[in-house]
Write a structure and sequence with these properties.
184 residues; alpha/beta; Rossmann fold; seven-stranded mixed sheet; binds 5-O-phosphono-beta-D-ribofuranosylamine
């Protein structure tokens, strides 16, 4: 029951995944084998090191994908989890790992794909937005949807308060969904 996490930035979702479950009992814990990034300076790598989880950073996407495949095969990793990974994976890599790569996106897909999804929903004036966990295919945020959670946008919401609400939902939804997928 192990995963690898790919990220490019702050890694609050990684933190939620690492912290999920009981602090002293293994059951319910998600085994994060490696944390990998396309950026040497991603703060998520520091979060992983604090938990003594091995890290790899490689800005060249082809080389990063090769390394992911090598480590996943050698360590029997079952799921590749994208958590704020800002690059579009190559079609060959996605095909090889079909059904084994998931992503979290801060909107109700198919609305507001791509970067700045929370701001796009806020600026558009929708009354409901949310969070989507989906399988990764070769498109941008186009893979089949695993689960979604709705977040209403109230008149009193600012962009900052909406961001906070969305991230709070992400930090519960992602670990729970990963656990369900790993448990079949
Ligand atoms: C999250 O909002 C996630 O939905 C999106 O990128 C952001 C990553 O945040 N894909 P963090 O690095 O986990 O804090």
């Amino acid at each position: 029951m192990s995963i690898v996490v790919l990220l490019s930035g702050s890694g609050t979702n990684l933190q939620a995944i690492m912290d999920a479950g009981h602090p002293f009992i293994d059951e319910g814990r998600i085994n994060v084998k490696f944390v990998m990034s396309d950026r040497h300076d991603a703060y998520g790598l520091t979060r992983a090191k604090e938990k003594k989880i091995p890290t790899v950073s490689q800005p060249r996407l082809n080389l990063l994908e090769k390394e992911v495949t090598k480590l996943c095969k050698a360590n029997k990793v079952e799921l590749i989890v994208l958590a704020g990974f800002m690059r579009l994976l190559n079609p060959g890599f996605v095909k090889k790992w079909k059904g084994k790569i998931i992503n979290i996106h801060p909107s109700l897909l198919p609305s507001f794909k791509g970067a700045h999804a929370i701001k796009k929903a806020y600026d558009y004036g929708v009354k409901y937005t949310g969070v989507t966990v989906h399988y990764v295919d070769k498109g941008m945020d186009t893979g089949s949807i695993i689960t979604q959670e709705v977040v209403p946008i109230k008149k009193s919401d600012t962009l900052a308060s909406l961001e906070e609400k969305i991230h709070k939902v992400e930090h519960k939804l992602y670990p729970n969904t990963i656990r369900e997928l790993l448990n079949g």
